[in-house]
């Protein structure tokens, strides 16, 4: 297995987004293979996950979200360490949830996007292992599939417990998020049921789901 450098991954991502026709279809599979090789080894994704990675990339392409800079930048760094790989997986889940809200894709493809969003979110949680005492804002963001800015918003609003270190960064007690994991899965299941029964039902974003979880916990 030969993993590309961050610079080469940038070139690959850009090349895919400007390609057309049969060339694009082939390059999408090359990109999926590199996603599996780079982020996959950090998330323990090997045999048996090829199809879900290919479909993820194809769905993001169909929805027009593959060209997002945040995805490309996270992909560049996905092989650096486990935290970067989890952040990339969480972004994939978030963008797949946005894909599930694109009506022109049809109900079947939107349901598949929602299912895969849950799969990627699950990869983040599975790699978490034993619960640490403290989490960084980036780690919380990865678990919920939101941006670190959303976590800072919760801190500023007093909706989550957090302490600021002498260096100015934030750390958050991990045990306050344990209930949120279960509720997040339940809300995602509800989304899928709504979409399946009402094809025009809008899908909530991961940030909207997470906001509701935090609100319930603090009320």
Could you walk me through the main structural features you see in this protein, from its secondary elements to its overall organization?
The protein has 219 residues and is mostly helical. It has one domain. The protein is built from 10 helices and 3 strands. A 3-stranded antiparallel β-sheet has the order 1-3-2. The radius of gyration is 17 Å and the shape is globular.
**Structural class of the secondary structure composition?**
mainly alpha
The tally of strands reads 3
- C-alpha-based Rg, rounded: 17 Å
Question: Please, how many helices?
Answer: 10
Which range best describes the helical content: under 10%, 10-25%, 25-40%, 40-55%, 55-70% or over 70%?
55-70%
Proportion of residues in β-strands: under 5%
Features:
mainly alpha, 219 residues
Quick rundown:
The protein is mainly alpha-helical and 219 residues long. The chain has 10 helices and 3 strands, in the order H-H-H-H-H-H-E-H-H-E-E-H-H.
Protein topology:
Blueprint: H1 6-18, H2 21-43, H3 50-63, H4 69-77, H5 82-99, H6 107-128, E1 134-136, H7 137-144, H8 148-156, E2 163-164, E3 170-173, H9 178-197, H10 206-218
Antiparallel strand pairs: 1-3, 2-3
Helix pairs in contact: 1-2, 1-4, 2-3, 2-5, 3-5, 4-5, 5-6, 5-7, 6-9, 7-8, 9-10
């Amino acid at each position: 297995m030969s993993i590309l450098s961050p610079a080469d991954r940038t070139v690959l991502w850009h090349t895919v987004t400007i390609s057309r026709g049969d060339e694009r279809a082939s390059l999408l599979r090359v990109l999926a293979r590199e996603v599996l090789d780079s982020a996959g080894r950090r998330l323990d994704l090997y045999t048996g996950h090829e199809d879900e990675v290919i479909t993820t990339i194809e769905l993001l392409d169909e929805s027009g979200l593959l060209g997002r800079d945040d995805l490309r930048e996270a992909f560049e760094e996905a092989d650096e360490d486990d935290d970067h790989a989890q952040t990339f997986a969480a972004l994939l889940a978030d963008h797949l949830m946005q894909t599930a809200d694109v009506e022109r894709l049809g109900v079947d493809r939107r349901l598949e996007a929602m299912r895969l969003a849950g799969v990627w979110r699950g990869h983040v949680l599975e790699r978490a292992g034993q619960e640490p005492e403290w989490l960084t804002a980036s780690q919380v963001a990865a678990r919920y599939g939101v941006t670190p800015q959303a976590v800072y918003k919760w801190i500023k609003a007093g909706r989550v417990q957090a302490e600021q270190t002498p260096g100015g960064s934030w750390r958050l007690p991990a045990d306050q998020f344990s209930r949120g994991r279960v509720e997040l899965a339940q809300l995602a299941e509800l989304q899928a049921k709504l979409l399946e029964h009402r094809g025009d039902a809008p899908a909530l974003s991961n940030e909207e789901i997470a906001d509701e979880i935090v609100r319930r916990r603090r009320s």
